[in-house]
Amino acid sequence: MSFAALDRMLTRLVTHGRLTLVDTDGKAHKYGAAGAEPAARVRIVDPAFPRKALLSANIAVGEAYMNGGIVLEEGSLRDLLDILLVSRDRVGGPGLLT
Fold first, then answer.
1. pLDDT tens sequence across 23-72
2. Which residues does 80 contact at the CB level (< 8 Å), separation at least 6?
3. Partners of residue 44 on adjacent β-strands
């Protein structure tokens, strides 16, 4: 499982707010509507994070945040969780943060 699979999932999932995810190559991927709030920008530091997030997002996001596998560059942890959880509730995401 690669970043491409995570990218596809987030493209379908993020319907609330705006999320920018910077991959390990430094490329920014944007999800949600431009200018929407809340907004968060997250840099992936751990190259294994995309696979972990697809397999068990509810654990992977928290662990990666705590151990530095992802770094919030803009917004707060509350903003990030708001984007993911409200979006999940709207579209019934595939086990994301359940």
1. 999 999 999 999 999 999 999 999 999 999 999 888 999 999 999 999 99
2. 19, 40, 42, 61, 72
3. 70
Give the predicted TM-score (pTM) of the model.
0.89
Contact at 8 Å (CB) between 16 and 87?
yes
Q: Helix or strand or coil: residue 35?
A: coil
Bridge partners, residue 74, by sequence: 41
Contacts of residue 59, defined as CB under 8 A and 6 or more positions apart, other chains included, come to 52
Residue of 78, 60, 59, 79 whose CA lies nearest to 70: 60
- Of the candidates 17, 13, 54, 64, the one whose C-alpha atom is nearest the C-alpha of residue 38 is 17
29 contacts 39 by C-beta, under 8 angstroms: no
Q: How far apart are CA 42 and CA 50, in angstroms?
A: 12
